[in-house]
Design a protein that fits this description.
- Strands 12, 13, 14, 15, 18, 19, 20 and 21 form an eight-stranded mixed beta sheet that branches. This protein has a four-stranded mixed beta sheet with strand order 1-11-9-8, with no helix packed on it.
- It is of the alpha+beta class.
- The chain folds into three domains: 12-18 and 153-242 and 477-499, D-Maltodextrin-Binding Protein, domain 2 (3-Layer(aba) Sandwich); 42-142, Dipeptide-binding Protein, domain 1, CATH 3.90.76.10; 252-471, Roll (Dipeptide-binding Protein, domain 3), CATH 3.10.105.
- Helix 14 runs antiparallel to helix 15 (444-461).
- It is globular.
- It has 15 helices and 22 strands.
- A hairpin with an 8-residue loop joins strand 2 and strand 3 (56-58).
């Protein structure tokens, strides 16, 4: 391994990034859009960069005053905020505008009215209690534009070569720079440079050569080059000033969704349970270099409302075979055809890693006599297939928008069926009642009790195979200081520092 020094000790921070589609806050559909948008546009509230568990802090607005019934939110502009109440109202109204469909319009679906009682105050009235509403005011969708369309955030977009490169220059007038207490000799980066590099091997080589300053994830193929047998960073990397960051469970869950409209899977809970028990998590964990944790449901542990209990339908081959027989497929034989039961797994982005993962899952089901057909599609075709309900099984992930169980459990409410986020088209009146009761609960304790029951129902019904929870590892180059791993990295480059 040859480690080249950084190209130049400049104040330009460079990292590989997926393609950004839009810099309009209301159209910031992907996590990559959100990262770029929140460099430029400030939001009413923000997520504390350092606090764990996560908490909200003032952004353009102070934390809201909430009425006793939970329906009225009064926000005041923070001292020195360069924009006014009318600008915040305009941002929210754009997000709510039915004539301008936004992928983030769901965040404002409970908003009945937005008014400005004064130049520096905003009142938001909801039509129903929504305890997570303040978190939505910290999302990129709520980025506030100045009247001329510009942003007041820490950086400005300097250039954009679509699908290749974005460069942001520091906004010296951003009030946050003055508030930061930087150590002597440290300063923010003058420019942030996002470059599109599709090939992970190329990203790795560029990082080693100092051409990029940060590697947001470590591929399976490079794991051995990064970590030693004891789970520590390779000494050669450490000697070059490279730091291994992260390792905590992410607010994200990976799963194999089951189409509840499918005539084979939907009405047969025993079959769904059998497929869950046949999923060999110990082997799956080895496949991912032991860098994942087992999921016991759709809610990850770092989320408020998570209910901890043993995995109900974890890997157990003999139990899987017994459940398969109870489901009407003894030995995996379909009595209607006399042949092996065959189900299909749809996978987006047909990379080598995805192919190997799919083949591994197929080997799990072969052990109980079930044939798994792998269907690889482009990401766009995959999402279209899932939204139409054409996919029988589908490999997906859900990354939390905020650290509350509601954000994950909404994925199973019948009102959110595809093309909404309930891609399994799960429909259970008992579940819906528990979810609705949680949303109406007046206390956190009561809400958590309903969330616990929601999770119990899902663990028994198995509309998903809960494959794993990721652990986010990243590598920071020698010039990057001040990095703290976060599940909400949107605009966080403003906290990075470099030696001057």
């Amino acid at each position: 391994m040859i480690l080249a020094p950084a190209l130049l000790a400049t104040a330009v921070y460079t990292c590989a990034m997926e393609r950004v589609d839009s810099m309009d806050p209301v159209n910031s559909q992907s996590a990559y859009d959100s990262r770029a948008v929140q460099l430029v546009y400030e939001t009413p509230l923000e997520i504390d960069y350092e606090a764990r568990p996560y908490r909200l802090v003032p952004g353009l607005c102070e934390l809201p005053e909430v009425s006793a019934d939970g329906l009225v939110y009064d926000l005041k502009m923070t001292a020195g905020a360069p924009l006014g109440a009318a600008d915040v109202k305009r941002a929210i109204d754009r997000l709510r505008d039915p004539d301008r469909p936004s992928p983030g319009s769901w965040t404002m679906k409970r908003v009945r009215e937005v008014t400005c009682p004064g130049d520096r105050s905003v009142r938001i009235v909801l039509d129903a209690r929504q305890h997570v509403f303040p978190w939505m005011l910290a999302m990129a969708y709520c980025g506030v534009m100045a009247p001329d369309g510009g942003g007041t955030g820490p950086y400005r977009l300097k250039s954009w070569w679509r699908n290749h490169e974005m460069v942001f220059e520091r906004n010296a007038g951003w009030r946050g720079w003055a508030a930061a207490a930087d150590s002597p000799g440290l300063a923010p980066f003058d420019e942030i440079r996002y470059i599109v590099v599709d090939d992970i091997s190329t990203q790795w080589l560029m990082f080693l050569r100092g051409e990029i300053d940060f590697l947001g994830s470590i591929s399976r193929d490079n794991w051995g080059a990064v970590m030693d047998a004891g789970g520590r960073i390779n000494p050669k990397l450490a000697a070059a000033g490279i730091r291994l960051c992260g390792g905590e469970p992410a607010i994200e869950v990976r799963y194999i969704g089951m189409n509840m409209r499918d005539p084979v899977l939907g009405p047969n809970r025993k079959l769904r349970q059998a497929l869950s028990c046949a999923f060999d998590f110990p082997t799956w964990k080895c496949f991912y270099n032991n860098s994942i944790e087992q999921a016991n449901g759709p809610v990850p542990p770092m989320v408020d409302g998570y209910a901890d209990e043993p995995v109900r339908y974890g890997y157990d081959l003999e139990r899987a075979k017994a459940l398969l027989a109870e489901a009407g497929y003894p030995g995996g034989i379909d009595p209607a055809t006399g042949r092996r039961l065959e189900v299909a797994l749809s996978i987006g982005r047909p990379s080598q890693d995805s192919r190997e993962a799919g083949e591994l899952v197929a080997s799990f089901y072969a052990k109980i006599g079930v044939k798994l057909e792998l269907r690889f599609q482009t990401w766009e075709a995959f999402l279209s297939s899932v939204n139409r309900g054409d996919a029988q099984l589908f490999l997906m992930a859900w990354v939390g928008d905020y650290p509350d169980a509601e954000n994950f459990l909404q994925l199973f409410h019948s009102k959110n069926k595809s093309p909404g986020p309930n891609h399994s088209d799960y429909d259970n009146p008992e579940y819906d009642a528990e979810y609705d009761a949680a949303m109406a609960a007046m206390t956190q304790e009561a809400r958590r009790a309903h969330w616990r029951r929601c999770q119990e129902i899902l663990r028994e019904d198995c509309p998903w195979i809960f494959t794993h929870i990721t652990k986010n590892y990243s590598l920071a180059g020698r010039r990057v200081l001040g990095f703290i791993p976060s599940d909400f990295p949107y605009g966080n480059e403003k906290y990075l520092r470099t030696a001057r």
